[in-house]
Amino acid sequence: MSHTLVSVNWLNEHLYDSNIIVLDASYHLPTVQRDPDMEFVEQHIPRALRFDIDEISDQESELPHMLSSAEDFDAAMQDLGVGNGMQVVIYDSVGLFSAARAWWMFRYFGHYEVAVLDGGLPAWIAAGYATESGRGKVQPPPYPFKSKKHPDWTITAEHLKENITSNEYLVLDARAKPRFRGDVAEPRPGMRSGHIPQSTSMPFTELLDSQTGLFKSANEVRERFGQAGADNRPVVVTCGSGVTACVLALGLEVAGLTEPKLYDGSWSEWGSRDDLPVETG
Fold first, then answer.
1. CA of 108: how far to CAs of 34, 88, 118, 124, 268, in Å?
2. Is the domain 5-149 a CATH 3.40.250.10 member?
3. Half-sphere exposure of residue 74: CA atoms within 13 angstroms, side-chain side
4. What is the per-residue pLDDT across 213-238, written as a single tens digit (0 to 9) for each?
5. Is this model's pTM higher than 0.90 or not?
6. Domain layout of the chain by residue ranges
7. Pick the CATH number of 152-270 from 3.40.50.970, 3.40.250.10, 3.90.550.10, 3.40.50.2300
8. For residue 142, what pLDDT is reported?
9. 246 classed as catalytic
10. What is the pLDDT of residues 148-186, one digit of tens each?
11. Mean pLDDT (whole number) for 43-55
């Protein structure tokens, strides 16, 4: 079973294994004006099914794609044909953007047989492998999906506010540097610009090879986290809405470092609350 990354060659070799399920977890920022669901219908990896992080979320929260309850996640996995013991492979249409969010969700709910397709759909197409269209066909899982969640893997805004003075956690922000500095407007309306005081900028793209879009080697990733101080302190990962922060979480796993806590509300919450301090620069 694979737990972090698999290559397109590996997936092509194992695509029709009976215990493999492939999920397209593509998501785009509001400003991009792309419809990941429509794109999936037009083109996806054979046998893949659609994992919508907006649908598989807490529908009562005003914040985007917050974690659902364990019961709702179990029901969603049953609808997708995902059962205990199955190897899940997740990809997205950007390359490596939102797939890590779905990877992290599976792990949060206790399913560790999950990996991200390195390079995603672009790498699959570049390798010359076939795609298909349509919705895909759900097969009933041999065993039901049963969550065992890890509530200590997340952290609240209130605890992060305390961290500004306690400095217990190293807070890594996966957004692009202009957003971190507050030089540009946030993609969601009503958000202040800037970052959480005492947090450190670490754009998720720094973990990816700029030429291939693939994850850098484990040694390179470990070195980058070491430069940030993540090799000797507990880590919190954050971003705009809890999506690309999970790329950092995946990177920490690839590097063999400690599991971080995710600030699920991320800047969508922090940037919209006037009671929380903001730094720029």
1. 28, 14, 21, 27, 21
2. yes
3. 12
4. 999 999 999 999 999 999 889 999 99
5. yes
6. 5-149, 152-270
7. 3.40.250.10
8. 87
9. no
10. 989 899 999 999 999 999 999 999 999 999 999 999 999
11. 98
